[in-house]
Amino acid sequence: VQLVESGGGLVQPGGSLRLSCAASGFSFSNYDMSWYRQAPGQEREFVAAIGSISGGKNYAGSVKGRFTISRDNAKSTVYLQMNSLKPEDTAVYYCRAYYYLTSRNYWGQGTQVTVSS
User: CB within 8 A of 25, min separation 6: which ones?
Assistant: First the structure.
């Protein structure tokens, strides 16, 4: 099982980034997918999620209206489009896969996002 995040980097405030998380080794379409982030000295926090069946989406209040989560089951990939980035969005962003029937979940290794001028 692998979850490999990519797309992080350094961006100026107000800029955009698109994160990708490529999955392998499990039935991607059966899993709810989500993004979390962890800033230095902070606990890991929920950012966004997308359901496996309904495709329903959920966002943390701090990113609603700026971030968009999507998935491509054919490519076993989940995305996080981040617009209007703020310095407080700086964190390591992690991808998570969760299967509700077994409570099994997997995490990626994370990708660094730094928002700074």
Answer: 1, 2
Among candidate residues 1, 9, 19, 8, the one with its CA nearest the CA of residue 71: 19
DSSP calls for the chain: -EEEEE--EEE-TT--EEEEEEEESS-GGGSEEEEEEE-TTS--EEEEEE-SSS--EEE-TTTTTTEEEEEETTTTEEEEEE-S--GGG-EEEEEEEEETTTTEEEE---EEEEE--
Give pLDDT tens digits for 72-100. 999 999 999 999 999 999 999 999 999 98
pLDDT band at 106 (very low <50, low <70, confident <90, very high): very high
